[in-house]
Amino acid sequence: MELTESQYERIADCLPRQRGNVSLSNLRVLNAILYVAEHGCKWRGLPPVLGNWHTIYTRMNRWSKAGVLDRVFAKLQQEQIIALRIESVCLDSTAIKVHPDGTGALKKAVPRPSAVPGAGTPPRFIWLPRMLGVP
User: Fold this and answer.
1) CA-based Rg of the chain, rounded to a whole angstrom?
2) Are 14 and 79 in contact (CB under 8 A)?
3) What mean pLDDT is reported for the chain?
4) Which residues span the domain enclosing 40?
């Protein structure tokens, strides 16, 4: 997934105008974002040909907060340039709080006296009789 100059011209009105001394064009940043979306790599895993990963990440983050990326992907769909739907799920164990009962910790339950260990459980091994020779 890489946009050409002609494809970029069709969606250029969705992107903010570049001002000042910028090292990367909007087209290169979009191609880098599409590379990450296609390959699922980390930002630091971007090839150096696409540009500095931190610059690309910073601009993508700014565009995302301003709603620019939503407009760009909607325009890409509308112009039928790229059929793309980005869905991501990120789970980080430092951010998810789990109740102690959900972690597999032993519960404070009194064992029933009538419970026999191993009763009602499938056997741990199976005997398979084999014939070693013909009788």
Assistant:
1) 29
2) no
3) 77
4) 5-78
